[in-house]
Amino acid sequence: MTDSRKLREALLQEAQRFYDQTPALQTFTPWPTDLTLAEKIPDTPPDINPALDVMQNWQSEQPFHQAIRRAINVISWRQTYSEAEVGRAFLDAFAYFELFGPDGLFRTNEGRAYVGFWGQGLFYPWHHHLAEEIYAVVSGEACFEAAGDPAVTLGPGECKEHASLQEHALRTPGSPTLSLVLWRGEGLAGDPVIS
Ligand code: ZN
Predict the structure, then answer these.
(1) How far apart are the CA of 1 and the centre of ligand 1, in A?
(2) CA–CA gap between residue 76 and residue 174 (Å, rounded)
């Protein structure tokens, strides 16, 4: 087994351990049973490197956080949004990857999971998607806003659900945030749309 493979397997193991310690995630959707390591993943575009430097400099005792930092160079990181949609400062300190799903580091037809990193002081603008969603904060904290819900600041192990097409946004005034995000229901293969 190559080192890159080992790092990704270790990352998945820590993700599952975090899931196993977070009851709201277990209630939301089962852990997929058909996960296979993707043979080939796209390279991370070089413009994401400034954001990854910010993430790399953020240390935490959290084992899942540490596994992500160790595997940072063997993950296919993405940003998806344009500068016009979210602004330059956002793109300089935001990155995410698909942990499992149709295009993930691990392939499955049973669900979709992302890991997102937001540096301190960002505003992730209002957006929506067809799939239902749950965020679980892995490390740091973030303020979650969603149409019809009171804004709530959450820390490690705390969760926030979003219904299908419910508008939501996220702010990180006090701390960077690393979160695990699970999707379920229709629209699993879709992307978020900025409102
Ligand atoms: Zn969302």
Answers:
(1) 35
(2) 27
Q: How far apart are CA 17 and CA 97, in angstroms?
A: 18
Cα 97 to ligand 1 centre (Å): 14
Q: Distance, CA 126 to ligand 1 centroid (Å)?
A: 9
pTM value? Answer: 0.96
Q: What is the pLDDT along the chain (195 residues), one digit of tens a residue?
A: 679 999 999 999 999 999 999 999 999 999 999 999 999 999 999 999 999 999 999 999 999 999 999 999 999 999 999 999 999 999 999 999 999 999 999 999 899 999 999 999 999 999 999 999 999 999 999 999 999 999 999 999 999 999 999 999 999 999 999 999 999 999 988 889 998
Q: Structural domains in the chain?
A: 3-29+48-186 (2.60.120.10)
In the structure, ligand 1 is a single-atom ion and the residues with CB under 5 Å from it are: 133
Q: If you measure from the C-alpha of residue 169 to the centroid of ligand 1, how many angstroms do you get, rounded to a whole number? A: 8
For residue 96 the two structure tokens come to 């995410």
